[in-house]
Amino acid sequence: MESKPLDASCDKLILTEEQTRCVLNAGKRSLIIEGKGKTGKSLVLMRVYAKLLENGSVGENNKIAFFESISELNQYVNSIYEELVADKEAPDMNLIDSKERVQTAEKALDKHKSQFGRHRFHSIDADLWLEEFDWIKGMNIDQDDIDGYLMLDHSERDKAIKMNPADRVIAFQIFSIYSEMLKDNNQVDALDQALYLFRHKELIPDSMKMSHVLLDDGQRLTKIQASILGLLSTGTVVVAVNGATADVSWGPKDLGDSVEIRRLTISQKPRVKETIEEKQEDPKEKAPIVDKKHSQEKRKYTIDTSKARSGSLFRQLREKGGTRVRLADGLNQEVEEQPKLDKAVYDKLIEEKTLSSFLEAFKMLRKCMITRKMDDQYKVLIERMVVLQESMEKYKEVYDPDIYDFCEYYVPEILRLTETYLEYVDAGLKWRILHDKETDIVSALEGLVIAINGKIDEIYMYASINLTAKAKAVESMMGQDGYVKPEYKI
């Protein structure tokens, strides 16, 4: 699918803490985002989509589907169904349009009336019956499964059409007549196609599946359509729902395994900020003044590094003039204003994918506004990376270790995560969000240090084996020449 253009104003909106938590999970786990109107569900989806685009190029093996409505999902399901028809995997049936659906439902009511006599159901509007038919199909029921229909929980549907058990038999008769008329006219509707794909999921071509699937306005999804979203994704699914999933006929399990529900409760519309400087000038966003006596002066803050593990650090990092400082080793030291990350140079170093370029990227990050824990880990990482680089060069004739995953994924991914963290710091996000992000990055850095130490051990192990083999060879040659230990002489 082609990438959707992003609204430029969307990127200027400051996310709430609830919204940011959703965006941080982009690409990691499937989500259902619940919320009432004006809580920013669509904004969150756009930010998730943008983050997925940033984290990986969209291509043959990394495709993202963003459905802005259920009708767009139905169009995509129709394209899959037509492909199966072309391959003779599905029956060749014409997709009925909305006007024809209404006419067919009215004809079904007339036919039922002529066969079974007058009933109060015959005066109910055809549109309401079509909602009932969609609900029946959406619950994986076809025209031959009356027992399955009678066993369904009808509490939600009874709000639309009040029925007793005997009435439900009449309703299913009307549904069966409608379904039979579609077959006679060689027609299917959108739910028929979704139901066919669900029951023949093994026929869905891999080429039509996506790495990630996003859907807005998903509260009117049926159970089958929710399951189709899960089948179309090889990675994560994110669905925005206006209300709560308790009010709909499907739930997290229909999307797949390990689906979380995130609720948005803040109703105010996010404010637009043109620049970070403008955000800092907002009185509500200012950090508390450390020293009122010198509040008007342009000065450096003294940072107490003993507070690096608490949220107070981030409240210290901003002053009235916007000066930003970097955490230094030692207590209560004044430091120079820390430079911004040179993104062009940084990106080039990551793209080179060599140990030397990664070392330079690590050093760039240490000059930026990262926390004490992160700085400590990068310091260790630089030391161990140098050892790895030297040991590879020293023993290149003996052993060539496989560091493909390090260069292609592990190190670049951690560097990108840290870059994102710095962007969050510049955006002035709350310290709790920054602390959570810091914890994830520190954990990843610790894992990378362990992996590098493992590679170093691996190199020296093979070097040791080679050294032992050479020693044995020399000893054997000397033995052949008669130079052996006295106790072994004959």
Mind explaining what this structure looks like?
It is built from 17 helices and nine strands. Helix 4 crosses helix 5, helix 14 packs antiparallel against helix 15 (372-394) and helix 15 (372-394) packs parallel to helix 17 (431-480). The chain has four domains: 8-91 and 208-264, P-loop containing nucleotide triphosphate hydrolases (Rossmann fold, 3-Layer(aba) Sandwich), CATH 3.40.50.300; 97-184; 276-334, no CATH class; 345-473, no CATH class. The chain is α/β, with parallel strands linked by helices and 490 residues long. The relative contact order is 0.10. It is elongated, with a radius of gyration of 32 Å. The protein has helices spanning 17-24, 41-55, 70-86, 98-116, 126-138, 146-151, 165-184, 190-199, 223-232, 252-255, 276-281, 312-316, 343-352, 355-366, 372-394, 404-426, 431-480; strands at residues 30-35, 64-67, 94-95, 187-188, 210-215, 233-242, 259-264, 302-303, 333-334.
Please name the defining characteristics of this protein.
490 residues; alpha/beta; Rossmann fold; 4 domains; two-stranded parallel sheet; 17 helices
Task: Please give a quick description of this structure.
This protein has 490 residues and is of the alpha/beta class. The protein contains 17 helices and 9 strands.
Q: Whole-number radius of gyration? A: 32 Å
- Label the CATH architecture of the largest domain: 3-Layer(aba) Sandwich
Q: What is the N-to-C order of secondary-structure elements (H for helix, E for strand)?
A: HEHEHEHHHHEHEHEHEHEHEHHHHH
- Main sheet, how many strands, which sense, barrel? 5 strands, parallel
The oligomerization state is single chain
- CATH fold descriptor of the largest domain: Rossmann fold
- Main-sheet strand order equals 2-5-6-1-7
CATH superfamily of the largest domain: P-loop containing nucleotide triphosphate hydrolases
The count of DSSP E runs of length 2 or more, i.e. the number of strands, is 9
